[in-house]
Amino acid sequence: MPVTVEDLERAIRAAFPVSHLDIEDQSSGCGSSYAILLVSEAFEGKTTLARHRLINQALKQEISQLHAFSQKSFTPAQYAAHQAKSG
C-alpha cells in the first residue's frame, strides 16, 4: 500500500510541534516520492544533520516504503527569514 500525504502528515504531527508543514507528492500520485518542508520549534539549536536524523527516525516506517524522500527543516525564526528573502 503506497504512503499517502495523510500518512506522512499524521506521523509528522505526532512527532513534532508543527508551525508550518508542506508535503509535496513528487511521484504524480503514486505515493513513491515526497518532499517535505517542516517548520518546528523542536529544531532550535540543532544542526541540519541532526534535524534530518530526527525526521528520518520519526518517519522510519513511511520512508522505508518510498523510492525518494527529500526534506527541508527550519525553526520558526529561520522560516520567517527564508520567507522574507523569497518574498
UniProtKB/TrEMBL annotation:
InterPro entries reported for this sequence: BOL2, BolA, BolA-like_sf
Protein's organism: Suillus plorans
Family: Belongs to the BolA/IbaG family.
One family name in Pfam for this protein: BolA
Example of a GO cellular component annotation carried by this entry: nucleus
A molecular function (GO) term: 2 iron, 2 sulfur cluster binding
Protein name: Bola protein
GO biological process: intracellular iron ion homeostasis; protein maturation
Positions of transmembrane segments: none
